[in-house]
Amino acid sequence: MRPSSPLPINLASAPFTVHEARAASLSSGRLRSSDLASAGRLLYLPAGWEFELAGLARALSAATPGAWISHVTAAVLLGFWLPARFRDCRDLHLSKPKVLPPVRRQGVVGHTVLAFEDEITVWEGIRMSTPARTWLDLARVVPLADLVAVGDQLVRHPRPGLELRTEPWSNLPELQRMLTRHTKLQGIVKARAALELIRPGADSAPETFLRLALTEAGLPEPELQIRIVPGDPYSPAADMGYRLQRIAIQYDGGHHLTREQQSRDNHRDERFHSAGWRYFKFNADDLAQDFRRAVGKVRMALKHG
Prior knowledge:
alpha+beta, 14 helices, 3 domains, elongated
């Protein structure tokens, strides 16, 4: 039996559509070779391909004209803060307008939705929902606190020199526009509640959860990214705090374990202490306990402020 001809380089390492195969002059017989597997209508996988979400999403969106990657899949691709159970999900979420037939593909979760043209974008070659629309679609599947955390992530300003983006993914007026446009979407009540709680300034989901824990316990809402000297970009900043009572609060995540980061943290801590602030640091152990200890400590500090 004659061995199959080698696949073109661009098709040998990632999923591809039948249209890409034809553009590369692959015959129908070549597509039936043992080194290829069908991934459903118009979609092929090269042998030995290891699952990679972006590659499969790119091919799926290309193989389904008029549809777009959405919901949890779009959130994972964009790097949204999601509950752990969603982070390694291999099901692909694909949305279509009502004029197209429903999605029927193995491993694909289909959605028939109403979406406006400006709620769909192309990200790294993948036709998918915009960050703001993805946030709205998540309202039906994630808890309120996680939806707030995603919203905080969308409206936060990227750190100059540390991130590829220079502008926030979205803003509060755009998220409000999503709610105004889609008043009957499943999860809309939760989305409305989340929008009331979204604040620019949180750099991580645990920071959002800590802020929510404080306010849900009846404590005043803290100022985010609070600096010793307001408006001075060179003044040390804590994640949140209460300026009048001179209370600073910091959440230390995993990235704080590096020696370089610890050195910066120690310098920041010393500056707050020297300025006469009471300074509290919490970590993943506190997060695992829903910040109950944190609430108690901050409550006591405010009482004696």
